Amino acid sequence: MLDRQNKRPNDLSAFWMPFTANRQFKETPRMLVAAKDMHFTAEDGRKIMDGTAGLWCVNAGHCRPKITEAIQKQAAELDYAPAFQMGHPIAFEFANRLAAMAPEGMDHVFFTNSGSESVDTALKIALAYHRVKGDGSRFRLIGRERGYHGVNFGGISVGGIVSNRKMFGTLLTGVDHMPHTHLPGENAFTRGEPEHGGDLADELERIVALHDASTVAAVIVEPVAGSTGVLIPPKGYLKRLRDICDKHGILLIFDEVITGFGRLGAPFAADYFGVVPDIMTTAKGVTNGVIPMGAVFVKKEIHDAFMNGPEHLIEFFHGYTYSGNPIACAAGLATLDTYQEEGLLTRASELADHWADALHSLKGEPHVIDIRNIGLVGAVELESIPGEPTKRAFSAFLKAYERGFLIRTTGDIIALSPPLIISRGQIDELIDNLRDVLRMID
Ligand code: PMP
């Protein structure tokens, strides 16, 4: 049944796997060889329910025929064409489609190949924007503790994860961090947006006052921090950040790599929270995770500031060999068709109550110290075994895999973000399985 590419090779040593305990994995590998809709197939033929949409990306589910066919057709017609001083129609068409669905005023799109590249591109646009406006003293960037903005140097500099930072030298200079917004004491077991902590946005005022606003270029946050454990913004927090940025002429960047394309029940978190940033980074769901691609959305005023420079010059000296790759654009267009035809961009809002009820039914199960949810995202936080801050959740991950469903863990937090095609019955199945797993682990 498996074709050649999907048979396990004799030797697993050459592939240095990302974000993986390689030695441990290669002793007991877990191999996925096929996928369809809500499920992977493991190499032993077992179906594994995808509780995480891959890595928060396969929003429309796996191996959707429309997307597969679009990729095949494009690969046979125009596989690659440079996008430097050359164009190909599908990249313009895809940018138009994206701009049309973006929050009001975000009319321009810069293509990248990943979330990390989108973040670094956004930071560069922000810095260069102030320069082209003659305000080059705005060089500081402000991120947040527990922020994850990918793994490139800009992203790890503004990000707030110690393990991402400690091995890699001095990183970008001129970066500061706001505190994270996770207040387990006050907000544990909140459904949706927490009541407490909106005033943490005022920390931005403090940092701006410390450096003077005239030196600050941009603030970057994930509207909902995903990979550091599903941290949901307290009520009013994002709006307050927006107000402070406006007051001081600072650009606000939303990293929507996870929240973009329907995860919260609206096309973007900016729509969901009613707070529009100046720049928005996306990736993952832009092509349903099928082909690497990212897209940075930019407000008209920012784009126009570059376009008002001297003519015949390259306005923004930045880009990637694969920016706007035709096959990625074809996958993206078919992905948007699928999202729109099946109502997937708002489906999380239809499922949100059922999802919240199911998740919060885990309150009181062994080890559970917090549960958080928004849209079709959830986190179940476990009490750590003293001195072993990742062990419990990871044993849940292993048990879950054995039982046939995929969860994601970060520290002792279990994160869930299933494809948006999940049915109510499948939500119940996922959560019931998780309940059983929680009762099994030590
Ligand atoms: N930003 C955020 C908010 C993310 O969640 C991620 C990936 N999980 C990234 C950036 C990086 O994306 P990539 O892995 O595609 O580089």
- Count of DSSP strands: 15
Strand order, main sheet: write it out.
4-10-9-8-7-5-6
The bound ligands are: 4'-deoxy-4'-aminopyridoxal-5'-phosphate
Radius of gyration: 22 Å
Estimate the global geometry from the Cα principal axes.
globular
* Sheet/helix structural class: alpha/beta
Major β-sheet profile: 7 strands, mixed
Question: What proportion strand?
Answer: 15-25%
* Total domain count: 2
Alpha-carbon distance between the termini? Answer: 38 Å
Mean pLDDT comes to: 97
Spans where pLDDT lies below 50 across 5 or more residues: none
Q: Name the CATH superfamily assignment of the largest domain.
A: Type I PLP-dependent aspartate aminotransferase-like (Major domain)
CATH fold type of the largest domain = Aspartate Aminotransferase, domain 2
CATH architecture of the largest domain: 3-Layer(aba) Sandwich
Helical content stands at 25-40%
CATH class of the largest domain reads Alpha Beta
By DSSP (H or I, 4+ residues per run), the number of helices equals 16
Organism: Nitratireductor aquimarinus
GO molecular function: transaminase activity
Keywords: Aminotransferase, Pyridoxal phosphate, Transferase
InterPro entries: Aminotrans_3 (IPR005814), Aminotrans_3_PPA_site (IPR049704), PyrdxlP-dep_Trfase (IPR015424), PyrdxlP-dep_Trfase_major (IPR015421), PyrdxlP-dep_Trfase_small (IPR015422)
